[in-house]
Write a structure and sequence with these properties.
Number of helices: 11
CATH class of one domain: Alpha Beta
Structural class: alpha/beta
Order of helices and strands: EHEHEHEHHEEHEEHEEEHEEHEEHH
Strand order of the largest sheet: 3-2-1-4-5-7-12
Radius of gyration: 19 Å
Largest sheet: 7 strands, parallel
Distance between the termini: 34 Å
CATH topology of one domain: Rossmann fold
Shape: globular
Length: 332
């Protein structure tokens, strides 16, 4: 078993993946600058798994120290989660997003090249489909069209960089995992989504309303052509997502492999609110707000390729995610 470097490994998806990797017997090291995560996550990983992964507090923009980590690490595979990820903030700070996400990734790739690391899994996003012109996304759809924010554009650009790198180096194995909407937390309640600042995504906003850090939830539009008028999205439990990385890693081969990770089913905003209320036993205050520009009525994953080629499918429900989220909120 080779050693794995998880960039951004103390973050929400990174930490859950590190836990699942350790449980499967893999040796993992983490590189993270703690910009949007907390050092205590390492203790919680240890509490859950019995193993405290080696940690490098390094910013991926710091090429010199990134190189040091690689020179000493003898890694087999990189799972690349690190990056800025708030859609709204990316519109306000585009240069910061392009610099961090793209320059940082180039530093990782250069250090991989310098140290003979030939496998990388990239944490991509369904945002790269833009407006796919259909409610369900398949991996063969054209990407990069009508992208409305710098965050999504950086994901698209990094995918293109990785494709070019694999074309140039026939020994390089690249897997692009396009996430849909990660939700939920580890069943222990010890770790979960806990972003710094004002979140963009529905679930962390619901959590902040529950904690009374935000007075109410805004539902952007209740007049879409959907079963209850609110937007439909594909919400995937973070532990299912984590396991998708492991199965993808175990099947890696030279060239580029692309997989959607989602459930294939959609849940409306109102259904998410109801599921949270059922799990918490409390009403969630919300208001109807105007539609947001660029919001699609329905966006879900076609994840048949991941099931067929990796043997992966989502097994957790939205209800599971809500139960685990309440558990995390009551532990936090």
């Amino acid at each position: 078993m080779g050693k794995i470097l998880a960039t951004g490994g103390t973050g929400y998806i990174g930490s859950h993946t590190v836990i699942e990797l350790i449980k499967k017997g893999y040796e993992v090291e983490i590189l993270d600058n703690l910009f949007n995560s907390k050092i205590e996550v390492l203790d919680k990983i240890e509490k859950i798994t019995g193993v405290k992964p080696k940690f490098h507090e390094v910013d991926m923009l710091d090429a010199e120290n990134v190189e040091k980590v690689f020179a000493e690490g003898n890694f087999d595979t990189v799972i690349h989660f690190a990056g800025l990820k708030a859609v709204g903030e990316s519109v306000e700070k585009p240069l910061e997003y392009y610099k961090t996400n793209i320059d940082g990734t180039l530093n990782i790739l250069n250090s991989m090249k310098n140290n003979g690391v030939k496998k990388i899994i990239f944490s991509s996003s369904a945002t790269i489909y833009g407006d796919p012109g259909q409610p369900q996304c398949v991996e063969t759809l054209e990407t990069g069209r009508e992208l409305t924010n710098p965050y999504g554009k950086t994901k698209y650009m990094i995918e293109e960089i990785l494709k070019d790198a694999a074309f140039a180096d026939k020994e390089l194995s690249v897997t692009l995992l396009r996430y849909f909407n990660p939700v939920g937390n580890h069943e222990s309640g010890l770790i979960g989504e806990d972003p710094n600042g004002i979140p963009n995504n529905l679930m962390p906003i619901i959590m902040k309303v529950y904690k009374k850090e935000i007075p109410e939830l805004s539902v952007f539009g209740d007049d879409y052509d959907t079963r209850d008028g609110s937007c439909i999205r594909d919400y995937i439990h973070v532990v299912d997502l984590a396991n998708g990385h492991i199965l993808a890693m175990e099947k890696m081969q030279p060239g580029v492999s692309i997989y959607n990770l989602g459930t294939g089913n959609g849940t409306t905003v109102f259904e998410m609110i109801k599921a949270f209320e059922n799990a918490s036993g409390e009403k969630l205050p919300y208001k109807i707000a105007p539609r947001r520009a660029g919001d699609l009525p329905v966006l879900t994953a076609n994840a048949e390729k991941a099931e067929k080629e990796l043997g992966w499918r989502a097994t957790h429900t939205v209800e599971d995610a809500m139960r685990d989220t309440i558990n995390f909120l009551r532990n936090a």
